[in-house]
Amino acid sequence: MTTLVSRYDGIVCDLDGVVYKGTDAVPHAVEALGGARTAGTRIVYATNNASRPPREVADQLGSLGLTLVPTDVVTSSQAGAHTLAAELPAGAPVLAVGGEGVTLALAEVGLRAVRPGDPAVKSGVRAVLQGLGRDVTWTDLAEAAFAIQGGARWVATNADTTLPTHRGLAPGNGALVGVVRHAVAVDPVVVGKPESPLYMLAARVLGTDIAKTLAIGDRLDTDLAGAVNTGMDSLYVATGVSSPRDVALAGPAERPRYLARDLRALHRPYVAAEPASDGWFECDGARARVADGKIETQGSAGADARLRVVVAACWAAADAGDDLSTIEDSQWQQALERTETT
C-alpha cells in the first residue's frame, strides 16, 4: 500500500493549528507524526515565531508526546541569520531586535549579535535582524531605524501582522516592522513564510530534495503560499486557520497539492479528485461540480473525499472565469459540512 507519507523523504511541518492549538495537541497529530518518524521519514518543524529558541519549541512538542531534538526545529530567526551569514564575514556585528531566538540564531552562524542597549551599536552594525520579542521597546525600534538609515542591511524574520494568543490577536512582528518602515526608505528582506528561505533552510536541515519534501500547513497565506513559492508539494489540513471554504476560493499561488481533514491522511493512500463528464469531479465515491452559481454534490463518501471534489470543482470553475462569490453561505455549508465530521 502506497501511503501519502511514503512518497516523501522528509516533512516540513507547521506548528500552530497543525500540531497544537494553545497548549493542547491537535487530534491525531501526535500519533500521525510519530508514526511517520517511526517509518523513517525525517521531520522538521518550521515556525515563523522568531522569539523562541529551538530548544524551547522542542520541549513543548516533547511534552505533547513527540520525539525530537532541538535541531529538528527551524525558526524564521535561523532563516534570517543564515541569509545574513551568506552575505557578511564571520564575526560581523548585527543588531538583534527581538527575543532570545534572534540572538541565538546569529551566534549559531558565527555573527556577532549586538543588542540595542549595547554601546557597540553606536560604532555601527552591518545589518539588522528584526524578529518578534515580548520586551521589544520603542528604543529598540529606533535603534533599528538609525542603523538602517546608516546603510545596514535589514532582514525581517517574518511579516505576520498579528499573533494568535489565548486572549485573541496581538500585534505580530509585521506590525513592528511596519513601525520601522515608516522611519526608513527601504523595505526589509523577509525570510519567513510565505517567502522561501525558511522552507529552503528546512530542506537543507532535512537533507532532502525539494521534490521529495512535503510541507504541511493549515494557513493559506503563509504555510501553503510558502510551499508554492519554494516549489514544494504541500498538504493542507483543516485543523487550523484556513477553512475548507477558504481553500476552495484560493488562487493558484496558495493552492496545496493535497487536501485532508487531519494528519491521519499521511498514513492512507491518497486518492485525488479527477475530472469526469459534464463538469463533475469524482473521488472515492464523492462527486461535485459548480453549475449555475451553485455547488452540486452527489454520492456518499468520507469527509476527505468530499473536501477534495468540492475544492477541485471550485478551482476549475474559478480558473474558467466563474465568479464563486455569488455562491450562498448555505451552499458552502451543505457542500462542505462533511469535512467537519469524523
TrEMBL record:
Q: Name one GO cellular component term.
A: cytoplasm
Q: Which organism is it from?
A: Kineosphaera limosa NBRC 100340
The molecular function GO annotations come to:
phosphatase activity
Which controlled-vocabulary keywords does the entry list? Hydrolase
What are the coiled-coil residue ranges? none
Q: Which SUPFAM superfamilies match?
A: HAD-like
Keyword Hydrolase on this protein? yes
| Name of the protein described by the UniProt record | Putative hydrolase
InterPro entries linked to this entry: HAD-like_sf, HAD-SF_hydro_IIA, HAD_sf
